[in-house]
Design brief:
Elements (H helix, E strand, L loop, with lengths): L1 H11 L1 E7 L12 E2 L6 H13 L3 E2 L10 E8 L2 E10 L7 H68 L4 H32 L7 E4 H12 L8 E4 L6 E4 L1 H18 L6 E8 L2 E8 L6 H4 L20 H11 L3 E6 L5 E8 L3 H4 L1
Helix pairs in contact: 1-3, 3-4, 5-6, 6-8
Length: about 350
């Protein structure tokens, strides 16, 4: 920019300055490049006008030609990148050759600005890519360092419970320890899944799945200890094929079933009903509780949200993750109170018909 202003000064026997714009598109008067041209408030206002209207102003223009300075916008891709201010000697005029060369100089300066902007975007893109790779590596390492010992602990506890005889008190302690390790594993999974979603490192791996298989796996993972007989599943006998990420949909349903088991009435049943309607598969998860207040319904899928009446335990992430997983798989999820009692969460997914499968 300074080289450009020097050449313009030689051409026009003038002083010139380039006023750059900040990220918000506002002129940065204190950081002008080239000669230091003092601008009054009125003249600064004219710079703002040039930026807003993308037109020249001041001397030799159609806007305030009586002004002593020339204000020329440097525009590329329809965006004003900077404003060139030129102060000519008193009564100096520009002939046709000078104006033609001035236009050439301003065009070259605009190209330089555009090139700088493209380089900045390229650097930011590379930095973002490198950051995502680092985040992915850290998440993989964190997942291994946290989940591996938790899996080993759960395995040892299962072995102790299955292959040894224990007094009642010891058996209760072991069972409580096993359940605690499973709850901790679920919390670690939730934090890792949410972090991957927020960093963009979690992309669906779509595959053709039968809804019955997904629901069965979700129920298997959700029921723990005394909850094993509380979940009742109703599913059509014929296959219902959906194009989804098996892990994502399983986790989403598991979180929703676990929410119903946790926050519904103690020892109350949870119904999982699967139906097909108009090329859609509908999965309803219903508990027999008293429902939740209307003002809370709109918030239950928010990250970290926990209602004032929510039971202790959990991070408030499960339903938020469920919603995002379902939406990534081209589905929708809603919640509603039932009459006279009960609470229902509904998942809707597109069904793959037989012709599509072929």
């Amino acid at each position: 920019m300074r080289v450009g202003t020097e050449q313009i000064n030689l051409l026009c026997r003038s002083n010139s300055s380039v006023i750059m714009l900040n990220d918000a598109g506002e002129p940065f008067f204190d950081g002008a490049l080239g000669d230091q041209i003092s601008l009054a408030d009125e003249q600064k206002g004219l710079v703002h006008w040039v930026i807003a209207n993308k037109k020249s102003a001041g001397r030799f223009s159609d806007t305030l030609p009586q002004q002593p300075l020339m204000y020329l916008p440097l525009i590329s891709s329809g965006i004003v990148r900077a404003v060139l201010v030129i102060k000519l000697a008193d009564n100096a005029r520009l002939d046709l050759a000078q104006r033609t060369l001035l236009e050439s100089f301003t065009a070259l300066m605009t190209l330089v600005l555009e090139k700088d902007e493209l380089l900045r975007i390229s650097r930011e893109a590379r930095m973002k890519e490198d950051t995502q790779k680092l985040q992915s590596a850290l998440l993989d390492n964190l997942s291994h360092e946290l989940k591996t010992p938790l899996t080993i602990i759960a395995g040892y506890l299962d072995a102790l419970l299955l292959y040894h005889e224990w007094p009642k008190d010891a058996l209760e302690l072991l069972e409580e320890s096993r359940l605690a390790s499973l709850r901790l594993t679920n919390s670690v999974d939730a934090v890792l899944d949410l972090t991957k979603l927020d960093t963009g490192n979690f992309k669906p791996n779509y595959a053709l799945c039968d809804v019955k298989d997904v629901v069965s796996e979700a129920v298997k993972q959700a029921v723990i200890g005394s909850n094993v007989n509380r979940v009742k599943v109703e599913c059509p006998q014929e296959p219902l094929a959906v194009q989804v990420d098996f892990y994502m949909l399983t986790q989403a349903l598991k979180n929703m079933i676990n929410n119903a088991l946790t926050h519904g009435p103690a020892q109350g049943d949870v119904d999982v009903k699967v139906n097909s309607l108009n090329q859609k598969v509908l999965i309803n998860i219903i508990d027999q509780g008293g429902g939740i207040p209307k003002d809370v319904l709109a918030k239950i899928f928010d990250k970290f949200y926990r209602g004032s009446q929510t039971k202790k335990g959990g991070l408030g992430l499960g339903l938020s993750i469920s919603k995002r997983f379902i939406e990534l798989n081209n589905g929708t999820v809603e919640a509603a109170n039932l009459s006279p009692q009960g609470f229902m969460m509904s998942v809707v997914l597109p069904v793959i018909d037989k012709e599509e499968k072929l």
